[in-house]
Amino acid sequence: MAETVVFVVCAVGAVASGVAVFVLDSMARATFALLASFLFAAVPLLLLGLSYLGVLVVLMMVMEMMVMVVFMIMYMMNPAGLMPMSMLHNKVGALAVAIGTFAVLAAGVFLVPWPAREGAVPADPTLLLAEAIMGPHMLVMMLVGLVLFATMVASVVLSTPRGRYDRYGDDLRRARPDDPIDGGLGR
Amino acid sequence: MILEAYLLLAAALFSVGLFGALSQQSVVMVMMGLELMINGVIVAAAALWFFVSPERPDGQVLVLVAITAMAVEMAVGFAVTTAIFRTRDIDVVDSADDLGDRDR
Amino acid sequence: MVESAPALLSPLVLLVLLGVFAYGAAAGAAVLHARAAGTAPVAAIAAPARESARLLVQRRRTVPGADTLLWRLGGALLPVAAVLAAMVIPLGPVAVSDLSVGVVWFNAMEVLAWCAVWLLGWGANSVWGLVGGYRFLVQGLSYELPHMFALITAALGAGSLRVGDVVAAQEEVWFAVLMPAAFAIYLVSALAMAFWGPFDAPVGRDLAGGAAAEPAGADRLVLLAGRYLLLTVVAAMAVPLFLGGGAGPLLPAWAWSLVKTAVVLGALVWIGHRVPTVRMDRFTEVGWMVLIPLSLLQALVVSVLVLVR
Prior knowledge:
The complex is a heterotrimer.
Chain A: H1 2-23, H2 27-47, H3 51-75, H4 91-111, H5 125-133, H6 138-159, H7 164-168
Helix pairs in contact in A: 1-2, 2-3
Chain B: H1 3-23, H2 27-51, H3 58-88
Helix pairs in contact in B: 1-2, 2-3
Chain C: H1 11-37, H2 47-57, H3 68-86, H4 102-123, H5 127-158, H6 163-168, H7 175-178, H8 180-193, H9 218-242, H10 253-274, H11 280-308
Helix pairs in contact in C: 1-9, 1-10, 2-9, 3-4, 3-9, 4-5, 5-8, 5-11, 8-9, 8-11, 9-10
């Protein structure tokens, strides 16, 4: 019973704060509404016994939203929402598509004959996951690692305006890089 | 609790995210919509793991992949936004539709 | 060993202990400051109490255009995050809640400090606060990865994310001896997390107090208390992770936990008093070029050790 109450509160909270993201004027508040939505959505994961994945979602989302808030405020024209303005296009069409999608998905949820559960929930789901990604599902883990590494390289290449020729000179012979901000290692 | 409740929550999160991704002009807000959609996927994968095949790890692995997809989406999204803002001073998707086939 | 079922630490006991240690940290800092300033060090022991009383009767500041909701939320989040993180810390053999993913829980809760400091800076609608909040994010991005690797190295050595198992794995040799680099990195990141000592740039004097510039009265009291609580919690977590938890001769386990916590906390407060503030841009390069490779190497060494053992 208590579980049901917690689930309903968190589900309503997750959807409501998800809607708030696109309603609020202040970009800081919108970001924290999104964070609230993620935190609410992590609780159902914990209810399902996925303690590791649930806490991981909390950990990652907090850090991710703190990075996001920086970009939100950097790129939005109205970061504090003190001057209400609309940044929407095709609002009616988007609303229709979203409601239509929800209707189709909800119909699917109730019409699809979901299979009955096979087997029991393991005592330690974290161990199950760990053994899977270090065993039969290792390809997933390797791909995830590669993709994350490629992401790091790609995002640095895309976002930095200065390359090694800017830092080390045209013939790359400068002993100390010419950086606008010095690092702590005195290179 | 039943599977349908969790899937309904996932569907609602996905639809709210879809609305955001379709209707927002700012690149960062579009990314927020995408994140909400992926969040729906996470909830659905976890629920299907628990209610359909808890002895197989597939659902949990899918959650892990979805979390990674979210991180990649955010990092590359911000990098692209930064790059396009730096070169062309653009921060809304309507101005960055060069690859679209609309007549100008 | 931490037994989960019968003997649980009462949350009230935890709160009282955290409060006592946080007050001790504040008093210690005041004593060191008084000694350096040449005034009576003994009188400084009561300084935090006097300051608290003063802040309680001081009027709360209101700022035009402030985002009051987020501002108050940020202030409240700091002590709440510290207490939530402390839930998994065992006192001798008992903890409030010995979660199966205790190490990850601790990490997730302490990261809430990022939110708290940024919100405090943003909400006040003050340039000093905003710069302070952004400084803490830069600092966070520099210390968090080495910190995570240090935590995960301790968990790796024990083969479990449960804090009780980490303590049990140190019966023969403390992890501070087995993995000194991870321990050192943990202490550095602990200072950075509580924006204390060399890492106090987010609330630095060059920013007129930074994220702490605008809060006054009760708000400021909550902010300062939250910061000392956070320092206490990260110091207390070093004990089960690296210093063998309650292990020790003669004294009971809970007493050893308290003694070790006091020693680590005292060391952190002393370092905070001795070392000057480090600039963000300098620490970032140190964090990414030195601390991350170092923590990865440490994790590699420990994994090999675990495999051959």
